[in-house]
Amino acid sequence: MAKKLMKGSEAIGEAAVQAGCKLFFGYPITPQNEIPEYMSMRLPQIGGAFVQAESEVAASNMIYGAAGAGERVMTSSSSPGVSLMSEAISYLAGSELPVVIVNIVRAGPGLGGILPSQGDYFQATKASGHGDFRVLVLAPWSIQEAADLVQDAFDLADYYRNPVMILGDGLIGQMMEPVEFFEGRVPTKELEPKTWATTGCDGSRPTNVVNSLFLDPEELEQHNIHLKAKYDRMVADEVRFAGYGTDEDYDVLIVAYGTVARVCSTAMEELREEGIKVALIRPVSLYPFPYRAIREAAMKAGSVLVVELSTGQMIEDVQLALARSRPVHFHNRLGGMLVSPDEVVAKVKAMLGGQSEEVHHG
Amino acid sequence: MAETVFARPESLADVSTHYCPGCTHGSIHRLVAEVLDELGVRERTVGIAPVGCSVLAYNYFNVDFQQAAHGRAPAVATGVKRARPDLIVFAYQGDGDLASIGMAEIVHCANRGEKITVVFVNNAIYGMTGGQMAPTTMPGQVATTCQLGRDVDSAGHPIRVAELMATLRTPAFVARATVHNPLVSIHAKEMLRRAFTYQVEGTCFSLVEVLSTCPTNWGIPPVEATGWLEKNMLPYYPVGIFKTPESGSREPKPLVD
Amino acid sequence: MQRDVIMAGFGGQGILLIGKMLAYAGMHEGMEVSWLPSYGPEMRGGTANCTVVISDKPVGSPVIRSPRAVVAMNLPSLEKFEPDIREGGLLLINSSLINRGAERDDLTVVEIPANEVASELGNPRGANMVALGAYLGATDAVPIDSVIEVIRETFAAKPAVIDVNIEALRKGYELGAAARQPEPVSA
């Protein structure tokens, strides 16, 4: 298919359709309303169904039902709405249901604002709900990548029987960029039939039950061990990241994800024009986090700069990766304010000039 | 030659339930199972279990099942039905699940006219968590969170779910039944049969509220529980058909004229 | 090489549309492009703006704090964005609705009475096209023929407005080109 200029929200919706998603349940919240709007128009065209739920609570349980019935299904929301979904996300993980959840993150806490933020990193990667579980989290930095990752997300969700979250921000939702959908796309994983789904039982198999309740602690422990083994496989096989200039020599390594990484890439170019050696590494999978790649890239640098639209969330994973072997510096903006390339340039210069203090946790 | 006149319905699993002596969940399960058998839909039925005493319903029915978060069974049922409209989907919920935490989900599910069936078991108390006040607890009824009896000045009056649901404009079948003796159980089964038939025919949303006993948490012997239900619940929760897809009426009508 | 511009005005002036058309034309020319609108409560009736980046390399930051060019269609937009323009950059002022010139003296300033020009052409709603044309005339960010093609695509369902909009674009282009000075370009 030819390149098309698409709004991120529409590209995300179309990518889901291209991936075989026929069902969408959602509730309005800014800044992601164009996703449900697009799906409400698009899904009936392909014999699918769109339901505007009465709340994010309901929407997230509707995807539970649809996924349990064996169909590809998606919901999208923004930060406060994702908080309301956290109960269902835990049930989805516990019941091992494949769904794709898009969070177009807005600034918080509380009602916060509607402008871009990365304040939901902890929620997405470490605490998307109660209990002991993980959600695969992918963070696009462009509209094309958002479209690609959404399609991959459906494959990964089915393969692992686990929720997959696309973590974007208002820029990803609202921006227009050229997007290309490739015909004859091959799934990223070899997928097996969903023999576990509740599709009606004619006696040829035992009844299927979609369930996260295990009252016997020994049974629940076995279930937890089974889930942990699955997360271990994700950690082994699903780490995604991109490096820019990491094959060359550099003094400073910048770590950033999502649209912030694009701002950093512009800053990196400006610094390089001035002869300052900088490289950028961008986690694409936030869970599993590319600990090893960041550690290896950081070993070539004198110091590391983490840039985030939060008070410091991903930086904790970077510090975990580095185990204090390199000084880590931090630059951020909050509340929906964006980091500019100029700020990053100034910060790197301050680091090299000894005018920036490294950040310690603990 | 012996003739079988009574047997376990195929839709009911061959297991003992965990329900207390004198509780009518088991009877209601059986009536639902008989209806599924008689309509010949067992092989394409998916049940949704709630949180509450019937959380383990998936063990007691011989059909595919999904266990839902507390109160969300109508949303889960919506997801299943929209994904697979050919399936027969029913949610089985208690009063805390449906009328308290899940009030938004049940109202909107009905209002969208989802072609599902809800079996709503009203025993006027939270059972599984140990006898706390439910939205359906009777005025003056003692519960562990209203130990002097439900005070309608602070807790409000019990919610009449069938009446409330019947006010919605969207076509639906809404009825209230009780199973505290064999005769009324036959009526209850007929209401359930109609409810599922409307779904099989793709007509409308259907809900049957079934009054149930909870001797354990009511604190009375099982043999007295049916009498308590008759004396205290029936006057406030009249049985009958509150709404049919053909009529927008809110007046209860008797099952048999 | 990268071109970037912030286009700003009242909601309803067709600002977001001309930004999109510019991005489309850039894409048709085989360039990398991004179009980023302001969003939020101010979208309704207040000021609207969008940032367009056109580059021969993948677009880095789609958010431009110091744009190479600003198209200001009303006074609040001029006041908001004039201070941000990169030194030596382009400031295009819609003098029909803005009764002052630039405050800075380190910019290339082009004043175009976009509304009057559009009205004279019998197309009072075409002020945005005049402004887009003027931006193209002053920068040649993309070939005007490419934008004309986008106009034909955009208004395919309303053929009556195609020619008048092309006319407005061309008139704007002439005015912009007349005022042209070399725009500073860097990577």
UniProtKB/TrEMBL annotation, chain A:
InterPro entries: 2-oxoacid_oxidoreductase (IPR052368), PFOR_II (IPR033412), Pyrv_Fd/Flavodoxin_OxRdtase_N (IPR002880), THDP-binding (IPR029061), Transketo_C/PFOR_II (IPR009014). It holds the Pfam family PFOR_II. PANTHER family: SUBUNIT OF PYRUVATE:FLAVODOXIN OXIDOREDUCTASE, SUBUNIT OF PYRUVATE:FLAVODOXIN OXIDOREDUCTASE-RELATED. One of its GO terms (molecular function) is oxidoreductase activity. The keyword Transport does not apply. Keywords: Oxidoreductase. The keyword Oxidoreductase applies. Residues 14-185 form the Pyruvate flavodoxin/ferredoxin oxidoreductase pyrimidine binding domain. This is 3-methyl-2-oxobutanoate dehydrogenase subunit VorB. Residues 251-344 form the Pyruvate:ferredoxin oxidoreductase core domain. It comes from Candidatus Sulfomarinibacter kjeldsenii. Coiled coil: none annotated.
TrEMBL record, chain B:
Keywords: Oxidoreductase. The keyword Transferase does not apply. It comes from the Bacteria. Residues 58-202 form the Thiamine pyrophosphate enzyme TPP-binding domain. GO terms for biological process: cellular respiration; small molecule metabolic process. One of its GO terms (molecular function) is thiamine pyrophosphate binding. PANTHER family: 2-OXOGLUTARATE OXIDOREDUCTASE SUBUNIT KORB-RELATED, SUBUNIT OF PYRUVATE:FLAVODOXIN OXIDOREDUCTASE. This is 2-oxoglutarate oxidoreductase. It comes from Candidatus Sulfomarinibacter kjeldsenii. The lineage of its organism: Bacteria, Pseudomonadati, Acidobacteriota, Thermoanaerobaculia, Thermoanaerobaculales.
UniProtKB/TrEMBL annotation, chain C:
One of its GO terms (molecular function) is oxidoreductase activity, acting on the aldehyde or oxo group of donors. The keyword Oxidoreductase applies. InterPro entries: 2-oxoglutarate_synth_KorC, Pyrv/ketoisovalerate_OxRed_cat, Pyrv_flavodox_OxRed_cen. Pfam families: POR. Residues 11-174 form the Pyruvate/ketoisovalerate oxidoreductase catalytic domain. Keywords: Oxidoreductase. PANTHER family: 2-OXOGLUTARATE SYNTHASE SUBUNIT KORC (PTHR42730:SF1). This is 2-oxoacid:acceptor oxidoreductase family protein.
